[in-house]
Design brief:
The protein is an all-alpha fold. It contains five helices and no strands.
Length: 122
């Protein structure tokens, strides 16, 4: 057996150790809860208009153009665009809390790579 193959096998054995994902899952859920809290706060206190709408739409801000790079694709800070962004953010927060697609996307990719390495090393 070549020395390079032995080093590669030792490296794979070192990285093959699986850890319990409980701590990472709790951190992910807490980040999702914080995001949900921040996005639902203005909705619950009915301050969305005050925070994000321009004065012409009943808000506090003066019109400064289309609202920056985040709002430009949506046509500015129009009321429908603001509520669409909030809906997407809340959906993302709920997906983060529930772990939607995390295991499917990342876990399967890692598993496929490990299987491919196992086949190569045999």
């Amino acid at each position: 057996m070549s020395v390079l193959f032995q080093w590669w096998r030792a490296w794979l054995d070192l990285l093959r150790h699986r850890e319990v994902g409980t701590g990472l899952a709790w951190f992910r859920m807490l980040v999702g809860i914080a995001l949900l809290w921040e996005l639902c706060g203005p909705l619950l206190t009915e301050s969305v208009e005050l925070l994000w709408f321009t004065a012409s739409d009943g808000g506090y801000q003066t019109a400064r153009g289309p609202g920056g790079w985040r709002w430009r694709p949506l046509g500015g800070t129009a009321p429908t665009a603001v509520y669409q962004m909030l809906a997407v953010g809340i959906a993302a927060a709920l997906g983060t809390i529930l772990g939607a697609a995390g295991g499917a996307l990342i876990g399967n990719a890692v598993e496929k790579e490990q299987n491919r390495d196992d086949i190569r090393c045999r």
